[in-house]
Amino acid sequence: MGAIAFDGEITRLLPLGGRRVRLDNGHLITVLPSLGAQTGVSLLGDRVTVEIAFNQLKGWRLSRRP
């Protein structure tokens, strides 16, 4: 099984690279930085995709984007 992914907008920058994201459905979630090499830093107001894997216990992460 793959990951569940949603689109949203960054509304707040948090310590240690975390982000507060308002999903397109209106929910607010706290997102951890993506795993692996960072391809770009997401800043306030940026549109992002977040995902959570079925076997992931640490919560939502920013998706790697091409």
Explain how this protein is built:
- This protein is mainly beta and 66 residues long.
- It has no helices and five strands.
- It has strands spanning 4-13, 19-23, 28-31, 47-52, 61-62.
- β4 (47-52) and β5 form a beta hairpin.
- The model has no long low-confidence stretch (mean pLDDT 81).
Describe how the helices and strands are arranged.
Elements: E1 4-13, E2 19-23, E3 28-31, E4 47-52, E5 61-62
Antiparallel strand pairs: 1-2, 1-4, 2-3, 4-5
**Strand order in space, largest sheet:** 3-2-1-4-5
Classify the secondary structure makeup into a structural class: mainly beta
Which shape, going by the Cα principal axes?
globular
The H-and-E topology, N to C, reads as EEEEE
Strand tally: 5
Number of helical regions: 0
What gap, in angstroms, lies between the N and C termini? 22 Å
Assembly form of the protein: single chain
The unreliable regions are none
Q: Give the averaged pLDDT, no decimals.
A: 81
* Rg over CA atoms: 11 Å
Strand content: 35-45%
Largest sheet: 5 strands, antiparallel
Helix content: under 10%
What's the gist of this structure?
The chain is mainly β.
